[in-house]
Each structure stands twice: as C-alpha cells, then as structure tokens.
Amino acid sequence: MHAPEPFRRQLLDALPRLRRYARTLVHDSAGVDDLVQGTIERALSHWHQFDQRRDLLVWLLSIAHNAHHDALRRDRRWQGLPPDELAQLQDAQAHHGPRDPGLRIDLLAAFAQLAPLHREVLLLVGVEQLSYAECAEVLQVPAGTVMSRLSRARAALRQALDGAPPARPPVPLKRVV
Fold this sequence. Notes:
Elements: H1 5-25, H2 29-45, H3 56-75, H4 83-92, H5 101-113, H6 116-127, H7 132-139, H8 143-161
Helix pairs in contact: 1-2, 1-3, 2-3, 3-7, 4-5, 5-8, 6-8, 7-8
GO molecular function: DNA binding; sigma factor activity
Protein name: Sigma-70 family RNA polymerase sigma factor
Family: Belongs to the sigma-70 factor family. ECF subfamily.
C-alpha cells in the first residue's frame, strides 16, 4: 500500500529541515544521506501510523532521532570530526556561510564540542524553532529536561566561544524501574 499523494508532498516539503537536523547528528555527508533516507523509508512504510493532528516534521524528527540513537547503540561508538578535518570541511564549504569565516569556524568548533544531548536540543529549539513540548516529543523526554538541556547547551556554547576548555560531557541518567 502506497502513501497518499498529500502525505508524500508534505514529506518532500519537510526534507530540508530533516536534512539540517540529520547534519547535526551525523557529521559526514554519507551518514546524513543514510539517516535521511532511512527516516523517509520508515515514514513511507509506516505512513498509516501517522496521526494527522500532529505536525509531520515533529514525527519525522522523532523517527530520525530514534534511528540515529539506534545506530549509536548498534555501533557503540561515535566520533566527531577531528579539529583539522573540521577546518578542512569548513574551508571547503566557506562560500555557503556567513561573511565572517572566522566567526563561522569558531561557532562550528564550539558547537562540535557540545555533548550530543546538548547539540540536539539546541538545534531543535534554536534552529528548527520547535516549542519545548515539540522538542520533548521528538527526544522522548519531559519538557523540563528540554529546558534544562537547552540552558546547559547555551552556557556551554558561550563558554566555548569565550575560549574556556570544554566541560566534561554529562553522564546520562538511567531510569530504574
């Protein structure tokens, strides 16, 4: 059974924002493509489970978020770009960025130093402009956790831009039932 045409059009409209979110989760273009493709495949194969009262973008970001974390659990390792590779990538893409390449490089380097939990929430709220409730839905955490992570992410980003050494990444809490 194929997804209806209006659903597929909405899916296409959401692709740029989905791709932007995937770029913050995965730091290489092949990985981004794989994550976006996997998200779209899951969405198309489960289109009948989509609740029309929800925002399709929030649903897609949830799928991407879960797929990414599934891959992390499967691989049990995640490595960011080393600073020299990051600088090379930034130089190659400099013509797409702001007028001040130094600011862009500093911002991207500071953003790369953030813990993954902080990068995710900062992107969803700051760039994708999701509400705290929508962000909480995507990340499957309480809204208070979103606010706390966002506050810590902003503080860590400020410190990194001020030249302070990166703080220790937070230890994820485990739920005991």
